[in-house]
Write a structure and sequence with these properties.
This protein has helices at 24-29, 31-47, 59-77, 90-106. By secondary structure, it is mostly helical. The radius of gyration is 21 Å and the shape is extended. The termini are far apart. 11% of the residues are buried.
Length: 112
């Protein structure tokens, strides 16, 4: 008979997820930040179209510039400054542009 090496009770189930990404850290630890990103994405989808950010020409440069503009507004007017057009917090626009950049930059092939 095989010897049990687990410290768990034999009546408990097992889940081998050690070392795997813990998505709950994002969902539960940053729920308000994620909600802000969703608000900006929803505003953009109404203004343009769903996922249209993916095909903007020169997207990397343009989203870096947009992120800098929103960061400048925070620097000038404080952390609760809101975008005049959307009414949403500038920090939520910064975070959304950062997500756009993270996606776009990951699609650039690595040099060989």
């Amino acid at each position: 008979m095989a010897r049990k090496t687990s410290k768990q009770s034999p009546d408990l189930g097992a889940k081998h997820d050690a070392g795997k990404p813990r998505w709950s850290l994002l969902r539960f630890g940053m729920a308000r930040a994620l909600a802000g990103i969703v608000d900006v994405l929803t505003f953009g989808a109404f203004k343009y179209a769903d996922h249209s950010w993916m095909t903007v020409p020169d997207g990397v440069d343009r989203y870096f510039s947009a992120m800098e503009r929103h960061m400048n507004e925070i620097a000038l007017h404080g952390p609760h400054a809101r975008d005049a057009e959307s009414g949403l917090l500038h920090i939520d626009h910064v975070n959304t542009n950062g997500m756009f950049l993270a996606e776009l930059l990951r699609n650039i092939p690595e040099p060989r």
